[in-house]
Amino acid sequence: MTSLLHRPGLQSLYRVSIPQDLQRNLWPLIAGSLTLGILSWAIYDYRDWVGFGTGGIPPTIRGWFKANRLRIVRAFNYLCGDDLQGPSGLPQTEPRYLPPTLPQRAKGPPSLKPRTLPQRQCPEPIEPQARDTLFNLMNDLHSQYPHLLHLGLSKTEGGTVDAIYARSELPTCNPEAAAVGYEIAHAHPADNSLHALLSPVDACTVIEAAWGRRFAVPSMVPPGWIMVYAPRNSEEVEVISQIVRAAIQWTTGTKLD
Questions:
Q1: Which of 230, 239, 207 has its CA nearest to residue 86?
Q2: What is the pTM of this model?
C-alpha cells in the first residue's frame, strides 16, 4: 500500500517554495528586524534610566553604557547566590539606634527596577499626605538639629535630589561617613524610596523587617549604606522617620532627644 506521504498529490503540500528574491533578502530582513528591536529597547531603557535618576552616573549615552555594564556584573553576582535581599555579609557592628525588631513591611519587599544604578523599586501607590510628610522629612530634621546637619544636593545621586549631611567638623562624626561625603539620607521622587547610612547592626534590622536591601554595588559604599523601601501611608512614614533618625545618630555620633 502506497504511503500517504508518497502520494504525488500530497507531496506538493509539504514542499515550501521560497522565491529566489526572498531567499537572497531573508538574512538582511532578519538582521534589520533584530537591529530595530534592539534599538527600540535601547531608547526605551535609556529614557527609563534617566527618568528614574541615574544613580550618580552622568545622564549620557556613555553613562548608560556604564550602567548596563554594572547591570551585567550584578546579574553575575546574583547567579552566584548574592541577591542583596538578605543581611548576609553585613558585620554586626554596633551601636544600635533602632529597636531590635521593626514592624514588618506589609506584603514584603516591592518589585525592583532591573538595573543596578540607579537602585530603584517599581513605584507603589502612596497616600498624598504621606508623600508630603516623606519629602518634608529631611527639611524638618535639619530644622530640629541645625548644629548637627546641613542640607544639600545628594552627591551620591549626582546632585539630582536633596539630602541631609552630617557636619563634618563635628568631633563625634563617624569617619566611615567620609566615603559618601558625610551624606546621611536622601529620598527619590520617582519611586519614594530612600538611601540611608546606618550602623551595620541597624541595617540588618531594616533588611530583616523587609524594609530595605543592601546597596547594589557594595564595594562603593560603607556596609551600612542601604536602600530603604518606599512607605505607602502615614504609619509607614513613621517607620521611615525612625530609620532616618537612627542614621543621623550613627553618622554624627550624637544621641537625639
A1: 207
A2: 0.79
